[in-house]
Amino acid sequence: MTEVQPQLVLIGCDHFIHHWQRSLGGWAQCHRADDVNDGDGSAICAGCVVLAELASREFSHWLQQSGACRQQWPVIVVGDGDAFDFDWGGRSPHSWLPSQSSPDQLLFALQQAWQVVVVRARQKDPLNMAKDDSQRFRQVQEMALLLNSSRNFDELFQGIVRHVTQIMAVDRTSLFLLDSASGQLWTKVAEGVDEQIRMPVGVGLAGRCASSEQSLRVNDAANHVDFDSSWDRQLGYTTHAVLCFPVYNRAHELKGVLQMINKCDGLFDDQDDELAAVCAAQVGVALENFQLLEELRQGFESFIRALTETLDAKHRLTAGHSHRVTEYALFLGRALALDEVALDVLKYAALLHDLGKIAVPDRVLTKNGRFSAEELSMMQSHPLWTGRILDRMLLPRHLKQLPQVASSHHERMDGSGYPQGAVAGQIPYLARIIAVADVFDALSSKRDYPKYGQQGESGLGYGPLDLDRVFSMIEQDADSHLDPMVVEAALRQRPALEQLCRQLHAEQQEAHV
């Protein structure tokens, strides 16, 4: 039999093998272990993925015969630890993943192992050394361009970390951010890990880097006093070498740690330190921009919430109204699969939908009981004032539609609403969501006027309607008053919406105890 020369070995249970035979065919030639042992004498070409079942009795012998361990080809194992009774030839697998691993985790491990194959293949050709240097320079440039082009910071940091992994030619990279208040590091991005990792400063390799504010190069992680092997055991991974580099802002204040794991072509050296310094500087710029914008966002939102709470508090029965409407609107927006930008507009429009009440005289705004015709006209002018006030504000670009959305929450699908008398499609979609949230809160909260023939006024006003009747009223108003698609979403998510309603009112009561 001709010597088999696979370059990447992937083993797991039979179900796993069948899944990945279908999934991997697009980018790698796949063969099963029994295919290479079928005795037909054919050799497998370089660049293929060999799939082998854990149950294969001949796997250990084949692994040695193929030269996978001898040539240090990456081997990825998926399954339970008790099943791994193989002779690894003094080498451990590249990745050892639990059987319940998600497809994304498996694909990430495979792609990173493939990176090892590519790097080792290039090392055999001296001409590729210069090509690699040129490619790394281009990747650093691309990362710098990414800093100036991305507006979504989650995507930005994921993209930066991917670039660092490629530039440094490592298996995976993690970006830890410093939480100064708690004295902890936490992962903003950690390749190959789904959950967030937290550790005290001074604990672990990244924690030691943060406490000393010095880079840390470890080429024998298992024997380092600060290495925490628990994550390797949990993730089925083997950490050999680690390079940690502190991340600073422009005032040279520590903001995080960049951690690079397992250099593909061996051990970290002085050149890697220089590259890591460049990468950490780029990450520091992105991180500082992110934190500055986050501070501006939090300041803007806290001001808006304080303003709306002040307006709501003018009347004892409307306290918390804008907050609840916002939570209901966001709940419905997520149920309707709105993207993050639309949800952001929805949040601020819901918070500010009653801003125009600042122009309504207090004698009207705080009146107990029903309004006269003149008073009703004054009250119904508040959406118009909401739009006028917001039009005068300098808003972020993605919130430009905020004035129109916030001022349209009293429009009705049949055109009988106010202030514009807009019909159906003329009403902004986000305003239609706020309209349902607004009606839902009005019906499910105490008010100083009877709702739908409600009787029994008391000193505390009219109580909320029973939730069965609230949902019945909302369903009846679909098409005429409310958008039927939004109403349908509310009815579909009724149990969760009822739970949210009870939670918000309980929180309101606790806040006033």
Which regions are unreliable across 5 or more consecutive residues at pLDDT < 50? 1-6, 36-47, 66-71, 126-131, 454-460
Structural class: alpha/beta
Number of helices: 19
Characterize the overall form: elongated
- CATH homologous superfamily designation of the largest domain: Hypothetical protein af1432
What order do the strands of the largest sheet run in, or round the barrel if closed?
Answer: 8-7-6-11-10-9
In round numbers, the mean pLDDT is 77
Report on the architecture of this protein:
- The protein has a six-stranded antiparallel β-sheet with strand order 8-7-6-11-10-9, with helices on both faces.
- The chain has three domains: 8-123, Rossmann fold (3-Layer(aba) Sandwich), CATH 3.40.50; 127-291, Beta-Lactamase; 313-511, Hypothetical protein af1432 (Orthogonal Bundle), CATH 1.10.3210.
- It has 513 residues and is of the alpha/beta class.
- Mean pLDDT is 77; it is low at 1-6, 36-47, 66-71, 126-131 and 454-460.
- It is elongated and about 80 Å long.
- 48% of the residues lie in helices and 12% in strands.
- It has helices spanning 14-23, 33-36, 59-66, 103-123, 127-149, 153-168, 204-212, 230-235, 270-312, 321-335, 340-351, 362-365, 373-379, 382-391, 402-406, 429-443, 467-476, 484-492, 494-511; strands spanning 8-12, 29-32, 48-53, 75-78, 95-97, 170-179, 184-190, 198-200, 216-218, 242-248, 254-263.
- The protein is built from 19 helices and eleven strands.
Topology:
Elements: E1 8-12, H1 14-23, E2 29-32, H2 33-36, E3 48-53, H3 59-66, E4 75-78, E5 95-97, H4 103-123, H5 127-149, H6 153-168, E6 170-179, E7 184-190, E8 198-200, H7 204-212, E9 216-218, H8 230-235, E10 242-248, E11 254-263, H9 270-312, H10 321-335, H11 340-351, H12 362-365, H13 373-379, H14 382-391, H15 402-406, H16 429-443, H17 467-476, H18 484-492, H19 494-511
